[in-house]
Amino acid sequence: MIQLDNPGPAGAAVRGTKPVPGRFQSALASGAFTVTAEIGPPRGADAEVIRRKVQPLRDWVAAVNITDNQSAVVRLASWASSLLTLAIGVAPIMQLTCRDRNRIALQSELLSAAAMGIPNILIMTGDHPRFGDHADAKPVFDLDSVQLLWAARTMRDDGRLLSGRVLDPPPTWFLGAVENPFAPPVNFRAARLGKKVAAGAQFVQTQYVFDVPAFERFMAQARDLGLPERCHILAGVGPIMSVRALSHLQHAVPGVHVPDEVARRLLSVPAERTADAGIALCAETIARLRQLPGVAGVHVMAVGNEQRIPEILQLAGLSPAPLDPACAGPGGSSDAP
């Protein structure tokens, strides 16, 4: 159970004091190659699922993304999962999508996240409900991701809502966005990221990178625009664990490009070894991305296989970074409650 009267980020926020910059923001500011990971909340009311997914990542990542009803499927709320993650002693990145809420609800959720000490917010437009488990749900999309980034930055920096009403005190967060370097038209993607940076994005996580040369071209365009100096860019990576997953990425996930040589490599091994081959390939990709100028780190998406993320990072030549007690959760201890 989360005890909000305890010391720590959430408890401090409830008492009305501003949280200090967290482990994630501090790691990026230091220039260290920074790792984040992603988990999907459960499709039921079981908080223990969050603990099981987050616990193995504690010493390996600077923060954990908590998705917001990803793929338009009903799950435990991102804000609730973020509080559970804080209680474990890991910094959450709370995703917030525009799909399900109007501007009143979006601003309310942003304020609530700040009040509860959730330090990082990742803003997305969100998948259309027709792709999820309630295809007849009415989409909202009152704002898109760029507009919501601008609204969040205005709330934080100017202390005002979209209506112009003053916020006292104003909230504080580290704001992020997403970008897909491989979606057409590819030559527009860096400029599109520039719009999000101008709107308020301080970090960005990209779609899966399987085609490193194509990502290098995107990064060259981003460097030409000066974006790495204004926004921390984390490349999205993840293991392809089965032939079925490979087919899904190739044919059902818009904007993901799996090069032929990657597909051939995964298909050349026996089915029982596909997962190991996918993990090795992911680790090699991380090692290559570490050498690219302007790449601040990687965002590891291994949904359903979060327990293997430490193995991937170790194969990539990365070492664990034990949690600084100053950045821990309730109680200021690096020991999980």
Task: Walk me through this protein's architecture.
It is a single chain. This protein has 337 residues and is an alpha/beta fold. It has one domain: Alpha-Beta Barrel (TIM Barrel). Helix content is 36%, strand content 14%. The protein is built from 12 helices and 8 strands. It has an 8-stranded parallel barrel, surrounded by 7 helices. Helix 6 packs parallel to helix 7. The radius of gyration is 19 Å and the shape is globular. The protein starts with 8 loop residues before the first helix and ends in a 22-residue tail after the last helix. The N terminus and C terminus are likely disordered.
Task: Please tag this protein with its features.
single chain; 337 residues; alpha/beta; TIM Barrel; eight-stranded parallel barrel; 12 helices; 8 strands; 36% helix; globular; disordered N terminus; disordered C terminus
- Which percent range describes the beta-strand content? 5-15%
Note the run of SSEs as H and E.
HHEHEHEHEHEHEHEHHHEH
Compute the separation of the termini in Å: 9 Å
Main CATH class: Alpha Beta
**Radius of gyration, CA atoms, in whole angstroms:** 19 Å
- Output the CATH topology: TIM Barrel
Poorly predicted regions are 1-20, 325-337
The CATH architecture category equals Alpha-Beta Barrel
- Mean pLDDT across every amino acid position: 87
Order of strands across the biggest sheet? 1-2-3-4-5-6-7-8
Helix content, binned percent = 25-40%
Structural class: alpha/beta
Task: Specify the biggest β-sheet.
Answer: 8 strands, parallel, barrel
Task: Specify the oligomeric state.
Answer: single chain
Shape descriptor? globular
